[in-house]
Amino acid sequence: MEAINWHGFFFLFFAIVACAFAMAVVVADNIVRMACYLVVSLGAVAGLYFLAQAEFLGAVQLMVYVGGTMVLLVFGVMLTARGPLASMRTGGGQWIMAAIAGGALLAMLLQAAFSVSDWAAPKTIQEQAAVEGSPSARLGLGLMGVRVDQLEQPNLMLRRGMSGHLLAFEIISVHLVVVLVGAAYLARAKRRLDHKQAKDDQRP
Amino acid sequence: MNLLAQPVGLPHYLVVSAILFVCGVVCMATKRNMLGVLMGIELVLNGANLNFVAFGSPMLRAGPSDGLGLDGQLIALFVIVLAAAEAAVALAIALNFYHTHATVDVDRGEELKG
Fold it and tell me: Are B74 and A139 a contacting pair, CB within 8 Å?
């Protein structure tokens, strides 16, 4: 009896939870239940991030996805659902087609995952992969244009391309502002205004 | 094959992300509710993100200079932000569609083309 690898145990736990609830999202008919299953699945994916030593990303996943995007989705469900159990059935033919396409895609992806021998086993012992300082600090420096993990890159041509992600950071900031302004503009309640105008027009 | 005793490698993460991705694709293809399609998109983005994190993880790479390094986590961060922005815009469009058509069934949006 070998000792239980606790890393493997927790990986298996989170992986099974994530996959099972993702499948439940697909199978579920009720949109509110789908949202609840999706929350659990995304939380389990955050656990997988923690296990892959991406602690900052796991925290961001929990805060932005589970805390922000899902609240947005649940509010969308509540604003658009007619009745508490709004369900829309899908035809059997569509299910069969989707199952065939999805199964083919899954088979191809699994075959690709196991086909590259370099990926098969980690050659570095896991204990040796020590924590290289706080991940959030390294990520922040990377966003600001300093790649602390690539300072020793011997190839000059490669080093030139590793100057960080400041441009992408700026683009994504502006993109976020534009998108949020656009979303607020699109979703504003203009119907009441139309009613008022129609009433005003009817009045002589 | 004892899964509990052997170390977790890159293929384990790839399998999980492949399952998430396919679930998202099937969800996008079969749901008639617009918000269900959105949830499928979230699943697809999470599957892709898991791949980025796994390839950039210092624990799973083969050698000291292999893998994506910090790039994996940075790109995953960008994907999370883009997913949040996409969810906001798509929800605004869904609300607008619901205001004009009183439904979120994607099959009823035929006049949106063109």
Answer: yes
Q: Inter-chain contact A34–B81, Cβ cutoff 8 Å?
A: no
Is B112 inside any structural domain?
A: no
* Two tokens, residue B101: 């058509």
pLDDT tens-place string over residues B67-87? 677 788 888 999 999 998 999
Q: Indicate the pTM of the whole model.
A: 0.83
Q: pLDDT per residue over A131-178, tens digit each?
A: 555 677 777 777 777 776 666 666 766 666 566 778 888 899 999 999
Token couple for A59? 């925290």
In a domain, B45, yes or no: yes
- Which of A104, A37, A52 lies closest to B12 in space, CA to CA? A52
The answer to whether position B73 is within a domain reads yes
Q: Please count the structural domains in chain B.
A: 1
Question: By residue range, what is the domain housing residue B59?
Answer: 10-102
Q: In CATH, what number does A1-86 get?
A: 1.20.120.1200
Residues of B in contact with A150 (CB under 8 A): 69-70
CATH, residue B85: 1.10.287.3510
> Comparing C-alpha atoms, which of B44, B40, B51 is closest to residue B14?
B51
* Residues of chain A neighbouring B12 (CB-CB closer than 8 A): 11, 15
